Amino acid sequence: MDGNGRWATRRLLPRVAGHKVGVDSLRRCVRACAARGIAVLTVFAFSSENWNRPQDEVSGLMDLLAMALAREVPQLVKDGVQLHFVGEREGLSPSVRGGLAQGERATAHNTGLILNVCFNYGGRWDIAQAARRLAAAGTEINEDSLSQAMALGHVPDPDLVIRTGGEQRISNFMLWQSAYSELYFTDTLWPDFDEASLDQAIAAFAGRERRFGKTSAQVAGGEQRRPQAA
Ligand code: FPP
């Protein structure tokens, strides 16, 4: 959800004002995804590296998270959204941690859209913590066991990864899970990302050919069987 800071700065507002409008944009996006039958939406709200931002922005984001939880969770419960927070909890204050756990508990029995909010998250962190846990349990480390031990182990790999705000990089987001995802980059800043923007991204996705390492002919179903030896 990149571009909140620039959205605010262009309007001579403090950066945190952009993050506030970013929450509105997230609410709109959650509803739009649910309306389009998307099963899982995973958003990057705070990275392991975001602690390096100015102190007032970091505390502004923490306050915003607490406010957003208090305001949004009752509606998420009504809308059937199942909320998950993905990331390292240890670095977070007890009150933030309590809010995350409470939001998850309140929506745990919902069966609609799964909303993963990555908070104090990094893709490398997730790979390392999964490997550490498997090693500690003496479990064999392979692709399947690692996938399941990841903090995102409860959802399938993403079909589409969207980055707003004009940068064309992954920035430590879902490194393991996005191995075969389609990537979509847009200059639209996150606060401006609306239903039409989402539909554009979905249309671009629909036009991609997903080969998962195969050839185009194989994917089209025209795969020639190798002649059998006589
Ligand atoms: C990146 O934009 C955005 C963030 C670091 C925060 C994203 C958070 C939200 C959209 C609010 C929702 C979060 C909660 C608390 C649930 P940026 O600040 O890097 O923008 P810039 O690249 O324009 O500076």
Give me some keywords for this one.
single chain, 230 residues, alpha/beta, Undecaprenyl pyrophosphate synthetase, three-stranded parallel β-sheet, two-stranded parallel sheet, 45% helix, disordered C terminus, binds farnesyl diphosphate
Outline:
With about 230 residues, the chain is an alpha/beta fold.
What would your notes on this structure say?
The structure is a single chain. With 230 residues, the protein is α/β, with parallel strands linked by helices. The chain has one domain (4-208): Undecaprenyl pyrophosphate synthetase. The chain has 8 helices and 5 strands; from the N terminus they run ααβαβαβααββαα. The chain has helices at residues 4-9, 15-35, 55-79, 94-107, 123-137, 143-149, 195-206, 216-219, and strands spanning 40-47, 82-86, 114-121, 160-163, 182-185. It is globular. It binds farnesyl diphosphate.
Amino-to-carboxy terminus distance: 58 Å
Count of the separate structural domains: 1
**Name of the CATH architecture:** 3-Layer(aba) Sandwich
Largest sheet geometry: 3 strands, parallel
CATH class: Alpha Beta
Stretches where pLDDT is under 50 for at least 5 consecutive residues are 224-230
Number of helices: 8
CATH topology: Undecaprenyl pyrophosphate synthetase
Strand order of the largest sheet: 1-3-2
Proportion of β residues?
Answer: 5-15%
Helix content: 40-55%
